[in-house]
Every structure is written in structure tokens, then in C-alpha cells.
Design goal:
Largest sheet: none
CATH topology: Na+/H+ antiporter like fold
CATH architecture: Up-down Bundle
Strand content: under 5%
Helix content: over 70%
Number of domains: 1
Shape: globular
Distance between the termini: 26 Å
């Protein structure tokens, strides 16, 4: 875990504060929104570069593990997110949409870090990573139309354009970079030198995007100072319930203890950067949706750390 990973919460908070401060300067408040999408596209290109698509077949070497995990993430969690949003955020449709977008996009990197920290086995969990990405690319617009379409107006054309711009293009670019690296260098160079070198770019570009977002939308965000606090109860409820749920699924399915750690983190950790990219392009006039996706990691990361400690204690007892 690198410096940016360890201090990501502080970097996000600093970026938000810096963005709000820069928003007091006219040029930044008027032009900040022009930089959000480019920074997010660069960030997602780095994210996609780290997805091991060659390992996709490995996911179903243990169909029980993979099938149950993907079922929880893409069938149960969207329904549970809708229920939690109705209970805790019923009077706040924009925050509810942001909350929904956060929960229906499972993580494509962090859950493996916390699995390692907790002393769990990452091999089976790592094979889920490319499926997490591909399934959320396919299902995110479907879930938005089904669930979020009941809360806010969604234009299908704008949604498709947004997904193409901030997801499909970075995805294609990452494949092209990988292919060129294999041709002109080698797979070993790409995996062991290039990827570690470019990894900090993921956090750096995310922070730049947050600065740009808060500088351009600071007025609307400051007008709703209690919004971040409204997200704490439903998010903590999600983590607690899904942790207990995933552990019981592992027990009933007789998944070994070391593999159950990766299983649990795969059903808990979320992909807020990807959802944020869609939010700022599909809903540019609704900053509270994007705000929910910035606040998400601030709650998620310390919660994942506590859960990792829980697993360590559980294993040592």
C-alpha cells in the first residue's frame, strides 16, 4: 500500500477544501467544471490498466465462490440499496441517487488491498475483479433507469453519451496502451515496471477532479452542509448488514475461512470513482449526486480498516 493509498482520506478532504477555496476565485468557479471529466477519464484509464482481464476464466474455477459473490453484488445489493435509500434518504432524491450509484458499483481494486491487510487469501477474490468491471459497465445504466429513474429525470441519450465518454473511451484506451506495451516492450515490463509507476496517477487524477468539482459547484455544496451526515447511517447499515450476510453465506456454502475474507470485502467495497465519473457527466446540474460519491470513500475506507482488524482478530482467536 503506497503513500497515496494510506493517506487517501486526507488527500480527498484536502482536495475538497482546496476546491471550495479556489471556488471563491471567479475564474475557477466559472471554469472548474471543464476539467472534471478529463481528469476522471485519465483516472479511469489508470484504473482499467490494472484490471487483469486474462484472469477472467479463473473466476469460475470455483463457481460456488464466484457465483455467490457476483449474485450478492449485482442482484441483492441494488435491491438493498433501494430499500436503504427509501428508509434513510426518502426526502433527498439527489443524495439518494448518489447513494444508489455508489452501492451498485462494486470495487475493482481496494477490496484486494484490505483482503491482504486482513490476512485473507486473494487468489479467488482477484479473479472477480474483471467481472466486477464488465458487469457494472453493462448493468449500471440499467439499474439507473430502473431505480434512479423513479427519483429524477434521466435522459437515455445523455446517459449513453456519458458512459461512452467517461467509461468506454478510457476502457478502450487502456486496452490499446496494454497492447502497445506488449508489442514494443514486454508483458513483464508492463506488469512489473509500468503499472507500479503509473499507479499513483489514479489517486492524483481523482484529487484533481475533486478540486475541479468543488471549485465549480462549491456554492451548491455549501448550501447543503448537512448532506454528508445524512449518508452516514445508510452506509454504515449497508456495511454492517452485508458483512454479517456475507459471513453467513460463506458459512452455509462452506467457503473456507481464508477465502471468506476476500468474499466479504468483494461484497462490501465500492467503486466510487467510476460512479462519480458517470454522475458528473450525466447529471451536471445535480452536484449533490456527485457529493454523495465523494463522501462515500471517506466513510468506506476507515470502515474497511476496522473490518480488516476484525478479521485479523477473528483468525488469531
Amino acid at each position: 500500500m503506497g503513500l497515496f493509498d494510506k493517506l487517501q482520506i486526507l488527500f480527498i478532504l484536502f482536495s475538497a477544501g482546496l476546491g471550495l477555496a479556489l471556488g471563491q476565485i471567479k475564474w475557477f468557479s466559472q471554469n472548474g467544471d471543464k476539467f472534471i471529466v478529463p481528469f476522471l477519464m485519465l483516472m479511469l484509464t489508470v484504473v482499467f490498466l490494472h484490471v487483469p482481464f486474462k484472469d477472467m476464466r479463473k473466476a469460475f474455477s470455483n463457481f460456488r465462490f464466484s457465483g455467490l459473490s457476483l449474485g450478492i453484488n449485482f442482484l441483492w445489493t441494488p435491491l438493498f440499496a433501494w430499500i436503504l435509500g427509501d428508509i434513510f434518504l426518502g426526502g433527498h432524491p439527489d443524495l439518494r441517487v448518489g447513494f444508489l450509484m455508489l452501492l451498485i458499483t462494486p470495487c475493482t481494486d481496494w477490496y484486494l488491498v484490505f483482503t491482504q491487510l486482513a490476512g485473507g487469501k486473494t487468489s479467488q477474490a482477484a479473479a472477480l475483479l474483471p467481472w466486477h468491471l464488465l458487469l457494472q459497465l453493462l448493468l449500471l445504466p440499467v439499474y439507473l433507469l430502473i431505480f434512479a429513474g423513479k427519483l429524477i429525470s434521466i435522459e437515455l441519450g445523455i446517459l449513453v453519451k456519458s458512459i461512452t465518454l467517461v467509461l468506454i473511451i478510457p476502457f478502450a484506451l487502456s486496452l490499446l496502451i496494454r497492447k502497445l506495451a506488449y508489442i514494443f516492450k514486454s508483458e513483464d515490463w508492463f506488469e512489473n515496471k509500468f503499472l507500479p509507476f503509473i499507479l499513483p496517477g489514479q489517486s492524483i487524477f481523482l484529487c484533481f477532479a475533486i478540486i475541479a468539482m468543488f471549485s465549480s459547484q462549491g456554492e451548491a455544496i455549501l448550501a447543503n452542509p448537512k448532506s454528508p451526515l445524512l449518508l452516514v447511517p445508510p452506509l454504515l447499515t449497508f456495511y454492517l448488514f452485508n458483512l454479517i450476510f456475507s459471513l453467513n453465506v460463506c458459512r452455509i456454502a462452506k467457503i473456507e475461512k481464508s477465502a471468506s475474507v476476500g468474499f466479504s470485502f468483494a461484497t462490501l467495497a465500492r467503486n466510487s470513482p467510476l460512479a462519480l465519473a458517470i454522475a458528473v457527466t450525466a447529471f451536471p446540474d445535480k452536484p449533490l449526486i456527485a457529493l454523495a460519491l465523494v463522501i462515500g470513500p471517506l466513510i468506506e475506507l476507515p470502515t474497511m480498516g476496522i473490518i480488516a482488524h476484525f478479521f485479523k482478530v477473528r483468525f488469531s482467536s
